[in-house]
Specification:
Elements (H helix, E strand, L loop, with lengths): L6 E5 L4 H12 L3 E6 L10 E5 L17 E4 L12 H24 L8 E7 L6 E7 L9 H20 L2 E7 L1 E3 L4 H11 L12 E2 L1 E3 H13 L5 E5 L5 E2 H12 L9 H7 L11 E4 L2 H5 L9 H8 L4
Parallel strand pairs: 1-2, 1-4, 2-3, 4-5, 5-7, 6-13, 7-11, 8-10
Antiparallel strand pairs: 9-12
Helix pairs in contact: 1-5, 2-3, 6-9
Amino acid sequence: MNTSRPSLVIAGATGFIGSYLVKAAVSAGYHVTRLVRSLPPETPLHCTDVVWEPSAHKVDETVMAGATGVICLNGAPLIGKAWTKSYKKLLWDSRIDSVQTLVEGIRRLSDEERPECFISGSAIGFYESDSGDLVLNEGMPSGTGFLADLCSSWESCAQRCEDEAGVRTVMIRTGLVMGADGGMLGILQHLYRAGLGGPLSDGSAWMSTISLIDHVRAILYAVVHPVLHGPINAVCPQPVRNQEWNALLARHLHRPAVIRIPLKPLSWLFPHAIGETIMASQRVVPVALLDAGFTFTAPTVTDIFCQALPQR
């Protein structure tokens, strides 16, 4: 391992967010240890791959010794598959097992060896899925439903790292991450480019989004700013209703977007509990990040579209 660089240990390093996080971390001067299920054919420069088995609670804790931070983004995708009983179990177990495994590994290290911080994924699904016009900051209570229960348990597991191991812990409550190659925008942009876009249902739902670049920047900011601990909302400062989001995307792509998309076709595009994800109405604001001095490169939805979908 290149010991001349500060180190990060990242679980979930090959997904939509994790793969970009690895690149950004390396560019920022870190050596990254990627926790993987099996060794890939190639390992990027300034990275090391280490196999772990979260379902069996197996990890070599020594890979986390002396790390600047341990980041856990591991978990089966919330968007893209039907939330059957078996898939709900996978959504739950993949997150809880991963966090528990890392926290247990950190606890096995001596006080001197433990990482400086532990960053765990979470989601704005922690809040009530239909919160009306209520502005949701990090101090608001958890909601009801499967996703809120999952996020609450997920965060409770992560908090053990601070309570039991004395390691500063941050839970990233992720909003709708906007990037060209994944997530909601990765799917919907093709409909809009074909002139088939439009408001989702009646267009009244609040959307709390963040660019992929700012989301990764927020994670790395949390690593080096001790003032941040506990839950932080990873969303841009200006949530908008879906009707406005739709109009702004259509304007950005220079395409019409007047076809109102009813719930049934939405369930074909996003075969999961859309009421708790895509169609959730949550007006979330990033109070903790702003109070800590974080600046967004894409503070508005217009900025997010310009960043994620550059004009051709």
